[in-house]
Design brief:
The protein is of the alpha/beta class. Strand 8 and strand 9 form a beta hairpin. The radius of gyration is 16 Å and the shape is globular.
């Protein structure tokens, strides 16, 4: 169901708060952003004429994904949550909170969780949070590295190509079976599962029933 790493310490800052990205890291971010755009395209098609609200869990300090998505989808209201966030966000809302304890004050049409689950010791709680954030019938999109990515990511981190702290913060790698069990346990149906980026990453499209 999952392969665990030894790392268990809790990161004290948000993704991207203390450094910039380059090279393969930017490529990985763009690949996840492509999945997010396809997700939003589907959300728009399935909700014609509706004012949509979308939330990104673990949006990073600057809300980098939301900067791009809010520009490309001006008809959608975006919010993001992370441990620490910039006060300079424009065009979307950033909420400073710990995802392991945060309780949403409203529900959303769509929720994104991009490269977050692998950083959490309790992914079941994260799936439950996604469900709490969604309207009934709402959609969630999630990415997380596949177990076979562990060796590749660890090697790239040792070579300085990926951020070593970021990769060492991975707590677990979930299999497809594990992801589907977590999704079903949180009240989701799995509408789509795909591997991408040379089978090193996983994408799931979930609907809250």
């Amino acid at each position: 169901m999952m392969a665990r790493q030894a790392a268990s310490t809790k990161r004290a800052h948000s993704y991207g708060e203390q450094r910039t990205f380059r090279g393969l890291e930017n490529f990985a971010i763009r690949r996840r952003l492509l999945r997010a755009r396809l997700f939003l395209d589907l959300l728009v098609v399935q909700n014609p004429g509706k004012q949509l609200h979308c939330l990104e869990l673990g949006c990073g300090y600057w809300g980098r994904n939301l900067v791009a998505l809010s520009r490309d989808y001006p008809g959608i209201e975006f919010s993001g949550v992370d441990l620490s966030v910039s006060k300079e966000a424009s065009g979307f809302e950033l909420i400073e909170a710990d995802l392991t304890t945060w309780a949403p004050q409203k529900t959303y049409d769509g929720v994104l969780s991009l490269a977050v689950a692998e950083h959490l010791l309790d992914p079941q709680t994260h799936f439950a949070l996604i469900a709490k954030c969604l309207l009934q019938g709402g959609l969630a999109g999630l990415t997380t590295p596949a177990p076979q990515a562990h060796f590749v990511l660890s090697t790239l981190a040792r070579l300085g190509i990926f951020d070593r702290e970021e990769i060492s913060d991975h707590k677990l790698y979930l299999t497809r079976t594990g992801l589907e069990a977590l999704a079903n346990g949180a009240g989701f149906t799995v509408e789509q599962y795909r591997e991408f980026s040379l089978w090193l990453n996983q994408w799931m499209l979930l609907r809250k029933m």
